[in-house]
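Next comes this protein.

***
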Amino acid sequence: MDSKLMVPAHSGLLDGAALRAQCEFIARAHADHRDQMRQALLAALKKAYVEGREQARELLFTDGSGSACAARLSWLQDQIVTVLHEFALNHVFGAVATPESARIAVTAVGGYGRDTLAPGSDIDLLFLLPARPAPWSEPAIEFMLYILWDMGFKVGHATRSLEECIRLSKDDMTIRTAILEARYLCGSRDLFDELTRRFEHEIVSGTGPEFIAAKLAERDERHGKAGDSRYLVEPNVKEGKGGLRDLHTLFWIAKYHYHIRDPEDLVRLGVLSRHELKLFQKSEDFLWAVRCHMHFLTGKAEERLSFDIQPEIAASLGYQPHPGLSAVERFMKHYFLVAKDVGDLTRIFCAALEDQQAKEAPGISGAFSRFTRRNRKIAGTLDFVEDHGRITIAGPDVFKRDPVNLIRLFHIADINELEFHPDALKLVTRSLKLINNALREDEEANRLFLSILTSPRDPALILRRMNESGVLGRFIPDFGKIVAMMQFNMYHHYTVDEHLIRSVGVLAAIDQGREAEAHPLTAQIMPGLEDRVPLYVAVLLHDIAKGRPEDHSVAGARVARKLCQRLGLSPKQTELVVWLIEEHLLMSMVAQTRDLNDRKTIVDFAEKVRSMERLKMLLILTVCDTRAVGPGVWNGWKGQLLRTLYYETELLLSGGFSEVSRKERAKFARETLAEALVDWPQRERKAYARLHYDPYMLTVPLEDQVRHAAFIRGADRAGQALATMVRTDSFHAITEITVLSPDHPRLLTVIAGACAAAGANIVDAQIFTTSDGRALDTILVNREFPDDADETRRAASVGRMIEDVLSGRKRLPEVIATRTRGRKRSKTFVIPPAVTISNTLSNKFTVIEIECLDRPGLLSEVTAVLSDLSLDIASAHITTFGEKVIDTFYVTDLLGHKITNENRQNNIAARLKAVMAEEADEARDRMPSGILAPAGTLAGTRTKQ
C-alpha cells in the first residue's frame, strides 16, 4: 500500500484501507465482467470522493483555514489517483510483476503539484514514461484518465518520456514551471527521482536570471489582462494583482533560484524575516479560504470575486457589519489589505533577489543588467543615491537617524524623476513604526508632503508608491482608514484610496495641459486659478471620511479642517478646502438630476457657490472625481451638462456680464452648426439651424448635432414620420439609439418600454422637442457585445423594436410580458425605494425625484404611472450610478399648475414606490400600443424645450 494512503492529518476525509479493500472486492466480484467492474469502481471512487469533499467543506467552515482546505482536497485527490493507478495495474492489466525499470511514474504538476487544490480546479497530471515502457503503459494511462473524466474531473494531462521532459523544458517556460513543481504520486519512484536530478542539473543550473525574467514578464502580462490594479472592486482572486498567483510566482522564483522546497527556508537564507514569512503564510491562507468558498458556493472554478457572491462569501467567513461599513465592505477591505501585503512581500523578495544577483552575476545583461553597483550621488542629499535611474538608500540607518527621510525619499524621487529601488522600499516598509505623531507634526515633513501633492510632474505616481509602501496611511491616519476600503456598489470601480489617488492624477493632467481636448473648459480655467494648493488638497481628501456612519462630505470637511492646519495652509486656503469637500457632490448632482434650463436651478446653485473661484475649483474637482470613478463613467454628455451649469452660474455670479452669454452662445452654436453643414443648400442650412431650441444647441456636442442633422434630413427625404439611428461606443461600453418621432405625451414611456422589451437597459436619456413639433430623443443603453459589428446589429434590432411599438405593429404589454417572464429580482444590492416631491426647486414645476434599484423596464413603468396620474412631464433627467438610479421629472398637472395638494402628493409617492418595488405590473397593461397608429386621443403635452 502506498504510504500516502496513511496520512493521519487528513484521514477523516477518506479511509484509504477501506477504499482499497472495497476495490479488491470489486475486482474479485466482477473478474469476468470488465464493464461491470469498471462501473462499480467508478461508483466507489466517486462516492468516496464526494464524501471526502463534503468533509473538507465542513472543516473549512469549522477551522476557517483555506490552506488546510486546499491541502485536504489535494490529499483526497492523491488517494483517488493512487488507488486508481494500483487498481489498473493489479486488476485490469495484470502488471504486478512488471520490473521497476518498465513502470510509469504518475506525478502531480501545477497547483496540484504544490500539494494544494481548490474545489473546482483542474487536476494536472504528468505521466512519466521510462525509456522502454511496458505494452500496458499507455492503455493504463488511458483507463485512468477516462475514469477521472467520468468522475467529473477536469484533467490536464501530458504523457512524456524523461528525455522529452528535459528537451521541452529548455524551450517552453510553462513546461519548465510545471516540472519545477512536479510532485510524486505513485508508480516508479526511481523514474521520478531521475527526472528531478536531471532537471536540476540540465535545466535549472545557471539559468536563474532567464527564468526570473520570464516569470516577472509573465506576471506583468497577467496583471494587464486581469486589470492592472490590486484595487479593482471585483478582483480576480487567482490571477489578479495581489492574488494567489503572485504568491505562487514568488515561490517558483525562490524554488528555482534558491533551490528550496519549503518557504521556511527563505527565513534561513535571510530573504524574508520571520514576521514576513508569517505574513506570506497568512495572506496565502486567507486567499485560499476565499477561493475555496467561492468554488464551493458556485459549484465551479469561479475566480472573479463578483458583487453577486461577495455578500455570501463575507457571511461564510464570519464578517459582521460595523457602523458605517457593511459586512461585505469589511470583508472586501480585508481582502484588499491582504492584496497590499502581497505587494509588500513581492517588493521585499525582489529586493533580496536583486541584491544576491548583483553579488553573484554583476556582468549579466538584460533583465538584471541594473544589478551592477555603480551608485551616483544625488544633488542636495547624502542619505540617498541613484542606482541606474532608481533612488535607493545610502546606508541602513537613514530612516532611523532622521525619520523625515521617510517623506524626503519620495520628494527627492519626484523632483529627480527617479524610480524606486526595491531595497529602499523594503527598508521603508520595515521602518513604518518610525512614523509617529512627532513626524506627523514635523513642519519640514508636511512641507515636503505638500510639495509632492502639488508637484508639476506626476504626483499620483509618487502618492501611489507612498500608499503601497504604507507611508501615506501612517503619515495621514485618516487616509489610512480608507486604504483598501471598497464601496459595495457597481458605480465605483476602485477602492477609496485608489480613487483618490487617481483623482489627483486627473487633476495633474488637467494642470499640465494634457486634457484640453477632453475637458476644454477646465483646461481653460485652470491656469487662471489664484491658488492651486487648496484644489490639490481637496481632490486628495474629498472622500477621506468614507465608511463612517455620518455623511462623508460633512465628516470629511471636519477632517480637512484639522489636516490643513497641520499641512501649513492659511485660514483662507483651509476654508476653501473645507467648502470644496463639503460640497464636492453638489455640481455633479445638479448637472445630472436638475433641469438646467429652469432659472431656479441656476439661482439656487449660485447661492451655494457664491464666488467664481469656488465655481472654477468645484467644476475641476467634479471632473476629477467623476473621471476617477472608473472607465465608462465619464462621457461627453456629462461634460456638456457641467459646462452648461458653469456658464449659466457664471452669468449670475458676474452680475449678468458673462464673457459669453447664453443667448450669444446659442447664436454661436447655430452659426457653427451652419458652417459644419457647408455642403447643404443655403436654405436647408438656415431652416435646420432654426429647428432646435436653445437647450439643444447648448447641451448637444457639435459632432452629434451634425449627425442628427443628416439623420433628420434623411428621414424627411424618405417621408418617414418615425425613424431610429444607432451608434456604438466601445470605449464607454454604451450604445446610443436616437429616435425621431411625432411628439407625444407618452413617448418616453413607449421608448423605454420598447427598450426593456428588447432587453436593452437604459442608463441615460436625452430628450428634446423641435420647433416643428417633433421629438428627438437619444437613449443610452448598456453595451452587450464586445465586437462593434455584433453590437450594431443588436442595437439595430432594438431600434426596430422601438419603431414597431411606436407604429403600433407590436403591442408593448405583450412584448414586455414575453421578455420579463420568469425574471428574478436582483438580491445582490438592496436600495429602499425613495420618492421626493418638491415645489421649491422650480418656480414653474413640481420636481419629482425617485431613487431605487435599477432594473429593465423601470423608466417605462415610472413614466406610465406619471401619465396615469394626469401629470405632464416637461423634462426628465435619467441618471444611473451603477445599480442605483436617481431619476428626476419636472411635472405639472394638465392645466400647467404645480402639484400642491398634500393628498395628491402622497398618492403620487405611493404609486411610484409601488412600481419601483415591482408591485405595479398592471401598469404595463395600460401602456399605449403605438403613436402613429390611430389609438385615440391622449391627454397632456410633452414639452421638452
